[in-house]
Amino acid sequence: MCGIVGVVSKHTNGFSSPEMDMFQNMLFVDTMRGWDSTGVFGVDNYGNVGIAKAAMHGADFICTKEFKEFKSHAIKNGIFAVGHNRAATRGTINDENAHPFYVEDKIVLVQNGSWRGCLTGWNQVPVRVTANVGKGIIRLIFTRNQNPKVFGDVYVYVNQANGRTERNISY
User: Fold this and answer.
1) Looking at residue 74, what is its pLDDT?
2) For the whole model, what pTM was predicted?
3) pLDDT of residue 89
4) How far apart, in Å, are the Cα atoms of 170 and each of 14, 48, 134, 148?
């Protein structure tokens, strides 16, 4: 299974150095959950989203130019950061399959685990459930359903994909 870590800054004008050091240490230690690729995304206080990722071990990733630039930007303007270490259960180990990934302009996801099966979305549009299903499900829901129950709907569809029929979502 993959590993996911995250830190929210206490400050509105960027991460403190100790906060960013904590995030880097968490990302490094979390490598035990996934050795195949490592990636990070963050949002700054202007609403901009930044991603850095590569098909490499976390210990190597935190030494890359891309991660150092990500870290520098987060210290100046970041408000939260999420890290992902991938243990490839399906799909090729390459930079493209590393997480995080964009679903739409400012929608970024990471995923832990493999989804199997098949589900049907709105208007009977079939979506094949594979290792990269998160992107497909979220895109389907956001493009077909613009109401505030979106995340409850995601929960229902994920459960259906896994053979469960739980629908008790509170909004």
Assistant:
1) 94
2) 0.69
3) 80
4) 33, 30, 22, 12
Quick one: DSSP state of residue 100?
P
Select from 74, 72, 85 the least CA-distant residue to 5. Answer: 85
The average confidence (pLDDT) of the chain is: 76
Is 27 within 8 Å of 84 (Cβ atoms)?
no
Q: Which residues of 151-165 are buried (b: 16+ CB within 10 A; e: fewer)?
A: eebbebbbebbeeee
Give yes or no for a contact between 54 and 70, defined as CB atoms under 8 angstroms apart.
no
* Residue whose tokens read 């009977």: 124
User: 100-125 burial, b if ≥16 CB within 10 A, otherwise e?
Assistant: bbebeeeebbbbbeebeeebebeeee
For 151, phi and psi rounded to 5 degrees?
-70, -30
For the record, the structure tokens of 121 come out as 């979305």
